[in-house]
Amino acid sequence: MTAISTNPVVSVLDKCKSLCELRQIHAQMIKTNLLNHQFTVSRLIAFCSLSGVSGGLDYASSVFSRIQHPNSFIFFALIKGFSDTSNPVESLILYARMLSCLNYSSGVEFSIPSVLKACGKLLAFDEGRQVHGQVLKTHLWFDPFVGNSMVRMYIDFGEIELARRVFDRMPNRDVVSWNSMIAGYLKAGEIELASELFDEMPERDLVSCNAMIDGYGKCGRCELAEKVFETMSDKDVVTWTSMISAYVQNRCPMKALDLFREMLSLGLRPDGPAIVSVLSAIADLGFVEEGKWLHAYVSMNKIELSSGFIGSALIDMYSKCGYIENAYHVFRSISHRRNIGDWNSMISGLAIHGLAREALDIFVEMERMDIEPNEITFLGLLSTCSHGGLVEEGQFYFESMHEKYKIVPRIQHYGCMIDLFGRAGRLEDALGVIQNMPFEADLLAWKAILSASMKHGHIEIGKSAALRAIELAPDDSSSYVLLSNIYAKAGRWDDVAKIRLMMRQRGVKKIAGCSSMLVNGKVHEFLLGKELDSSYSGQVLAKIAEVVSRLKLQGYEPDLTQVLLDIEDEGKESLLNLHSEKMAIAFGLIHINKSAPIHIVKNLRVCCDCHCFMKLVSKVYNRQIIMRDQNRFHHFENGCCSCNEYW
DNA sequence: CTAGGGTTAG
């Protein structure tokens, strides 16, 4: 026996890295008659199915099928191997076969956790309950591994109460039991129950804390995530990434980036997920320099663009920073093993730059290469069409989505269709979508109608859409603002005043407009009404006044309907001059070299007045301006803008 | 054998 276990052929198995090498070892085993020994065979099968060598699992089953009396270890290796795949039905079949040919005391129980895992993945409720029943009749009930697997299985089923019942009755709970139960509650959105358990548990480890940070972040409770983060003495990359992505998801990209820098300064090396989450923060901020640095870091550390979401995140980052050529270059350089996310990011990236045709071309290329699109691909495509005014194409893709690709449209897809018709001025069709869709219209649906009414001057439709939107989100200032814009456009100043009063009474705060730009490696931020970097402010205000008077000679008329205060026109005009994007433009005219474009990132939608202002600046001052508001780009050149959304 | 982090849309 010792001779076999130290046999050189067996020990070389551990070093094997590919199917080809595996075949040679297997051949050697046949030649030396080693395959007649159960132990050697079980090592071979265990290695094939558990090592992660591609094709290994199939190889293991073919070796397995030639064994006459497999023992429980051989069964286990294969059951475990299949339970780690996405369709582990084979695990259940093998388990049933094992029970029929082996007796219960021969090591059958080692397979139970894997079988439970398979049941969970397959949502095989009945089979899962049968295994549960077997467990109850045996001593396995006392094994925390088995109990933990059962908790996990019921969580996979979505049966959170059943999971809790198993948890409560487990005789030997360990940290993993608590962590699994907490993860289950977080997945089910039961944040209160999760934090209750977190507070109660006898000893927490890294995993428990990291899970809570992530959970708090996902439900919008950044302060609670921070509290856990601060109390931890040992933090690993996962801890930092969880906190960074909590900031990203709650729209605090600057905090996310600061935290990432702190992590670097402590000497921690970011891995794939850490880089992906901070790239999303950088995209939000438009800090292309940081993005380029990370891109170089990825190349230097030989992190594959096709591994995980690195490629998609880089494409997204470059697109949102205005560097669509770099995005395209990254996309092309991932020629083999391109992820669906890479395609999706490329399509949306082109779309936010107003390159609708190019975005649709990418989709055509995808179809040609037989890449299966997913529902996000269609969200990208439909929003491409709606922003590009391609109504017929949009309708075509919406239909092919469920006819050709069997993807059931979700409410967001209907939202895109509402937007598609609305932007094109087909309000009737847009309202028709709302009436016929199998969902109750949500906030985004009504906001799409509201913006369309604003754009095309439908006061009554706009009013009722605004009331619905306000009903659904009473604290969201944007619906109030849009409605009052509609009234202002129609000259109904009494109604404008009513809206303002309503906002004041309900304590709805308008989000301050903020523009930022990168000049000489430094970020400058401008807030409505005041410039943060006050040493420049006198100069900036003087420049705005100069530009305005020069533009007026070219026909610029300040659009006073954009100011919602009921004050004298003169006061309105000076308020208009304090809009953050005008300050940024003035600053750019002073400090940016004439040959370089002026890059601006704005947090909210640009108003009509500023949009018109920029068009004229691009012509009169012969400057190229690139502005991103929320996630759309406006390229201004020679009096024209790439977007067709303003009139 | 069981537990934790990531992109694309809006």
TrEMBL record:
Annotated GO CC locations = cytoplasm
Q: Which stretches are PPR repeats? A: 174-208, 236-270, 339-373, 476-510
**GO term, biological process aspect, one:** mRNA modification
* Keyword terms: Repeat
**DYW domain mapped to chain residues:** 555-647
- Pfam families assigned: DYW_deaminase, E_motif, PPR, PPR_2
InterPro entries xrefs: DYW_dom (IPR032867), E_motif (IPR046848), PPR_At4g14850-like_plant (IPR046960), PPR_rpt (IPR002885), TPR-like_helical_dom_sf (IPR011990)
The source's superkingdom equals Eukaryota
Q: Which family does it belong to?
A: Belongs to the PPR family. PCMP-H subfamily. Belongs to the PPR family. PCMP-E subfamily.
Report the protein name in the record.
Answer: Pentatricopeptide repeat-containing protein, chloroplastic
